[in-house]
Design a protein that fits this description.
It is built from two helices and ten strands. By secondary structure, it is mainly beta. The chain is elongated, with a radius of gyration of 20 Å.
Length: 184
C-alpha cells in the first residue's frame, strides 16, 4: 500500500502544472457593442517540452454582460473556449516572462427573452449555440511557483453563412493559481 501511494505521488510530480484561473474578457469592435464585458473561470494544463517550451490546454466558461440596447431581447449569453497552445519562456520553463499562442474553438450560447404578444400570447425565448474556430496570441508572467498572469488577444472566426460577417475579438486576462503538478 505504501509503495502504491509513493508511485502515485511520484506520478503526479511528473505531470505538468494544472491551474485554476479567473478570466476577464473585454470584447472589442462590434462584439464589444453588444457584450461590453465577460467574466468567468478556466482550467489549464501545461505539458513540459524541453527547458523553455510547454504545450497547453485551456477550457473556460465565460459569462458575457449584455449591453442595454440588446438586453430587451437577450436574456443571457456565454462562451466556452477550448484551446490548445504553446508557451515559450524567455528564461526557463515555469519562470518569468513567456509568449503564448493558442488555437481551438469557442462555443457561443445566446438565450433570448420571452416575447409577450399581448392578446396573442407569449412567444417563448430560445437558446442557440454555435461553435467557431478561434486563435489567440498573448504574453504572460509567472509571478511565483503558484501564481501566473497572462494577457491575450483572441479572435473568433466569423460565421461564413452571413454575408459581410466580421470576426469577433476580445482582450482576455487570466489570473491563475497552480493547483498541483509541475514538479521536476
Amino acid at each position: 500500500m505504501f509503495a502504491a501511494f509513493g508511485m502515485s505521488v511520484a506520478g503526479v510530480a511528473q505531470i505538468g502544472p494544472v491551474s485554476l484561473g479567473a478570466e476577464l474578457a473585454l470584447p472589442t469592435g462590434d462584439f464589444g457593442e453588444s457584450y461590453p464585458l465577460g467574466y468567468g473561470a478556466s482550467l489549464g494544463y501545461e505539458q513540459p517540452i524541453g527547458e523553455k517550451l510547454g504545450v497547453t490546454l485551456q477550457v473556460a466558461y465565460i459569462m458575457l454582460g449584455i449591453d442595454d440596447e440588446v438586453s430587451t431581447f437577450i436574456d443571457k449569453s456565454s462562451m466556452m473556449p477550448i484551446q490548445l497552445g504553446a508557451k515559450y519562456y524567455l528564461k526557463e520553463r515555469g519562470a518569468g516572462l513567456y509568449g503564448h499562442v493558442q488555437v481551438g474553438v469557442h462555443s457561443l450560447s445566446v438565450t433570448t427573452k420571452d416575447l409577450d404578444l399581448g392578446l396573442f400570447g407569449t412567444f417563448p425565448g430560445t437558446t442557440s449555440s454555435e461553435s467557431y474556430l478561434s486563435g489567440a496570441v498573448g504574453l504572460g508572467y509567472v509571478l511565483s511557483e503558484k501564481i501566473d498572469v497572462g494577457v491575450r488577444y483572441n479572435i473568433i472566426a466569423p460565421d461564413s453563412e452571413f454575408e459581410g460577417a466580421e470576426a469577433s475579438s476580445y482582450l482576455g486576462v487570466r489570473l491563475a493559481y497552480t493547483l498541483f503538478g509541475g514538479g521536476e
